[in-house]
Amino acid sequence: MYVGIDVGTSVVKAAAFDGTGRELAVEARPVGLSLHGGFVEQDMEEVYGAVVAVLDALTARVAEPVELAGLTGQGDGVWLVDAAGRPVRAAASWMDGRAHEPLDRWLADGTFEAVFRRTGSAMFPGCPGPLLAWLDRHEPKSLDAAAAAVCCKDMVFQRLTGATRATTDVSDASMPFLDPRTRTYDNGVVELLGLTHRRGLLAPVADPIATAEARGEGLAPGTRVSNGPYDLPASALGAGATTPGDGLLIVGTCLAALVATTDLDLTGEPAGLYISTDRPGHRLRAMPAMVGTAALDWVLSTTGVRHEEVDGLLAATPPGAHGVRVLPYFAPSGERAPFVEPRLRAELTGVSLESTRADLVRATCEGIGYAARHCLAAAGLTGSLAVCGGGTRSPAWMRLLADVLGRPLRVVEGEVGARGAVLAAAERFGIALDPAAWTEPTAVIEPDPDRAAYYAAGFDEHLVRLAAARDRARA
After folding, report:
1. Which pLDDT score is estimated for 37?
2. I want to staple 133 with a disulfide (CB 3.0 to 4.6 A). Which of 102, 376, 395, 399 is the partner?
3. Residues of the chain below pLDDT 70
């Protein structure tokens, strides 16, 4: 069997597949997030322990030997490790907002735009550049004690395999230091961010992705393991979004819009990033918004609505939610795609004593849909669109999303990131798998023409309200 490991922000999963791509079993463990004053951190030992636990449970359930394991996980953030891959301090998550000060300065003095014009990366507070600059100023001893500043999957790979040094791959290196043309670090960007004296913390880029053998924790000694790509490009692989123009929308904790491309356009408003892939010349134009299902989760918990009630509530109120509108920018670090606005916050308008829980839920889902449409347009979607993530478990929300986006949705269910990690590993190890069979959609949802026309006008209204909110955020 083949195993895909997906080290998510709130849940760590391991999935077993047979040679045709059929999912045999899945094991999952939650992991904690510490949120305080804009800081969002994770305990690396807890995360790694969850990886070992899900692998132990999975291999106990499915007795077949593991032919190979592909590893993926959350991107960005800063995971400071020593030479053995063990934590120097808690990991700073991609959701972290502490580094808004250096980012505000770089936005004002032109550094932010200069970096984008070199790498195609529009920095946000939770990406490695601003976080390393913040740590260099406020916690220099942590950086002094570290051997490398890596991303989540890199820490796990080093621990699982006992690798003697940390490495990363072109996908995780893409934000913000990688030159997408040479696929190596741009030392000019390091200098622009004032981090030349910390250049040694950037882990070497393994291109193609690194492979090694497991040392016996969670996987049998000698099991072949590959490191990457991280969860966004892994999900694109697992959903079959690899032909230029085709896209993937991940409706998960964050709302990520990805479009496959062979172009590199460093003009226009700096936003999102270009994620380099294992195929030179092939990239993903990525617009990963900060908040997806997390926005709906907040509304549900605040209103006392259970997840299983969502479909019924969406049916209980019409498109437009009786005038209730939601700008779904709930992240403490603001928004990062398809624009960067660190101080932007969510707004609820049109609410009155007559508004119902159904209105609030529907307006939130519509707002997330408008944000997705904005991201996909900015990413250059021209072909088919696949959708995956936790949001696909709600049929009513998927029908609403097809209407808001005005296009058919190829729904790909299951552990899409883990599936993509296996496909990447198989390519690396020279094992022939059938990508079409592995990425076949479970359903195709067509939009309703009348509702799609209504939401096209609603999207224009959303952009006007968003522009006003961005002006207020900067005031």
Report:
1. 87
2. 102
3. none
Tell me whether the omega of the peptide bond preceding residue 180 falls within 30 degrees of 0, making it cis: no
Question: Quick check: 418 and 389 in contact, CB under 8 A?
Answer: no
- Which pair of tokens denotes residue 41? 């951190």
Residue at token pair 């890596």: 150
What pLDDT was estimated at residue 18?
Answer: 97
Complete edge-to-edge strand list for the sheet that includes strand 11-17: 23-30, 11-17, 2-7, 68-73, 224-227, 211-213
Q: The whole model's pTM is what?
A: 0.92
User: What angle do the packed helices 395-405 and 357-379 form, to 10 degrees?
Assistant: 50
